[in-house]
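W.,

You were right to be curious about this one. When I first looked at the sequence I had no strong expectations either way, so I just let the prediction run and decided to look at it fresh. Below is the sequence, 572 residues in total, followed by the output.
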Amino acid sequence: MLASPHMPPHRERAGWAVGLSLGLLLAAAGCGTKSAPGGQGRPTPSAVGQPTGHRRSLVIDATGGTVASTDGVLTLTVPAGALTGPVNVTVDAITNTAPGGVGTAYRLGPAGTTFASPLTLVFKPDLTAHALADLVLETQESQGYWIRPGNVTRDATAGTLTVAATGFGDWAVATGSTARDLVGNFSVQSTVDGTYAVSGQSTLNFAGEDPVGAYYLQSGTLTLTSVSVPGLTCTPDAPTLPLLTNIADLLPNPNPTKFEWGVSGHWNLTCTSSGGAGSSATQLFAFDTSGESGGSTLGCTRTYSGTPIFSGTLVQGTMLVDCGARGTLLASWNFQSCLAGTACTPANACHTGAISCSTGAPVCADSGTSLADGTACGTGQVCLAGACNACAANVTCAPADPCLTGTTSCSTGTSVCVASGNQPDGTSCGTNLVCSAGSCVACSANLACAPATNLCHVGTTSCSTGASTCTDTGASQPDGTSCGTAMACTAGACTCAPGGTCTAPADLCHVASYTCDLSGNPVCTPGATPVADGTVCGTGLFCSAGACISCSGQPDGTTCGAGLTCVAGVCK
């Protein structure tokens, strides 16, 4: 069910009319129908906000510029090249009449200013009472309805709402959600009272509901894509026109079985006859699903082609309007849920993105802001300076320190080998160098050595543990190789080897040599041969004829040690 307080000129009949003037009004208007019964939830226009006396202005020319509201909530940026000459841009604070309005609304002027490229509006609302996710931006159209644009982006870090605007007008922050909004495209081919085709793009802002239905404010654009006028070649002066806001209905609520909506418009045409004569014409157009709003298709048969879809997230259908001999009209539409501003991954996976609904379908719009270097952007790929580059992480690599293990890291956006642990002890890290507990230390391998476990075996040094150790090869040392005092190797075993002089503590005045006891252990055993007289055998004692004596009672001059003689009983 549609409703609009404005009807287009010549609304009662779609078709074309040749005129003498090229100055006909260009407009697109809503297509009204009878109101649904009840409908307490249907939206109504709001009053226009009134200035509060707070204005900020700035003369901006072709170089562009920025002006902010007096409270700092709104910042308006006009890009370079958007204006052809100086304009005194104004930002007026006005009363906020948007449903669920938050804070002050703003009127941007002067009205009617045209721009070659979109403006950027950044709102930084007070978030004391509301979360950013619960706020939306709305602009008031000519009938008084507040419309939510589909290209708003949220920056949770900065606490801002940003929108690209094509012109000045009244803007406000309000509580609300785009979760139930629908966006989409439609097309119409008609041979009723003329042959033409139109296409359009619409945003359906969810505006309210009651048991009768769910109601949407429909806005967007309408384009005349082709037109055929007998005997003339015609082109529209302005092919694309803005839609005047309509109300579309999903009925009943909450389980709809029909979707009532419509659209209409007319275009001024500039035409040329085959003979070259110029003229003007007006192409009129109207379509609605109910057939209750009059127009050239009133009384024509309406049937769906295929099965239409009616839901809160997808409204889709194709309708044939058959007017018999006068022709047919085929309309198709597809409106779907679109959560504007939701974070998404654009074509460049190394940029941030946000869902935009401005094209009539959910599109991930590239913000141009690069993700942090090292952010994954695909299998074996990470971001670097806003571009996706190949980088394989967690691949074994060799760090600068040869005694450390390494794996590749892509956290910086490029492959870097970072230490992940120690190489096994004994790993070579240079000539005569091995790793030990992650450090490179000196160690020479394969040198001859004596195994501590068997001195009569051949040994070689090993660095396999990270330190030099003597490894028993199992081969025997040559027989007779010394393996200790009075010990020698025999067939790889260390055995007692008698002979060799020694000093027997029990008898220092006889020459002693090693003998082997019953257990095979060497024993220092005194023999019969005395040591040289005068050999010291204790304190103040010396050997004499194999006996250990003192100078007491010895004649003076008796040798009592090397260079010593007894004098008055004392060895001097």
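Here's what jumped out at me. The CA atoms of residues 505 and 524 lie 9 Å apart. And, maybe more interesting for your project: The chain has five domains: 15-29+180-337, 51-94+101-175, 371-422, 424-476, 501-571.

Coffee later to discuss?

I.
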